[in-house]
């Protein structure tokens, strides 16, 4: 395995989830949807993060997400690292929209710089070793707090690891949760389940709602 090739969200209504994704973020086939087969409560242990160029872009995506039915979790505001906001989609998925810039440099844009899947894990260092052993390359690493892996040339989504408690905190939700993560990751190798229960399957050949 050399990269994260796809992300599939398991939801109660795949068609509605795809409509939200299109209206809110214009993601197209970068994120796939399929019918949920397992129950889950509370924090599912992951978040999808959209990075953009400037604060005006963050505000634009937040507005479109709220208009499409998302609930606000963290208002758009400046932080030590830049500017960002957190919303929760009607299907329960938590989305973070952020930029490292604190000032606008031009007109607002709908251009997405990167789509990052943040996995909340119990032991960042152990999970880092696990994924490196399966072929992923570390791009950034901050001890036991955060790890970011390099994206493959054809990968629409970048993978990162965050301490579960810390991820829940920055998202503004309690860390407690039970049941399925309701997410399936597509890779280029054999299926496996990671130490925190995140399931990997062979990446689908075609995209769309199943």
Features:
4 helices; alpha/beta; globular; disordered C terminus; 8-stranded mixed β-sheet; 5-stranded mixed β-sheet; 210 residues
Describe it.
This protein is α/β, with parallel strands linked by helices and 210 residues long. Helices cover 20% and strands 39% of the residues. An eight-stranded mixed β-sheet has the order 5-6-7-4-8-11-10-9. Strands 2-1-13-15-14 form a five-stranded mixed β-sheet. A two-stranded antiparallel sheet has the order 3-12. A hairpin with a 5-residue loop joins strand 6 (82-88) and strand 7. The longest helix is centred in the first third of the chain and has 13 residues, at 55-67. The chain is globular and about 45 Å long.
Brief characterization of the structure:
The chain has 210 residues and is of the alpha/beta class.
Topology:
Blueprint: E1 4-11, H1 14-25, E2 31-35, E3 40-42, E4 46-51, H2 55-67, E5 71-79, E6 82-88, E7 94-99, E8 114-121, H3 124-133, E9 138-142, E10 146-149, E11 158-163, H4 164-171, E12 177-179, E13 183-187, E14 192-193, E15 199-202
Parallel strand pairs: 1-2, 4-7, 8-11, 13-15
Antiparallel strand pairs: 1-13, 3-12, 4-8, 5-6, 6-7, 9-10, 10-11, 14-15
Helix pairs in contact: 1-2
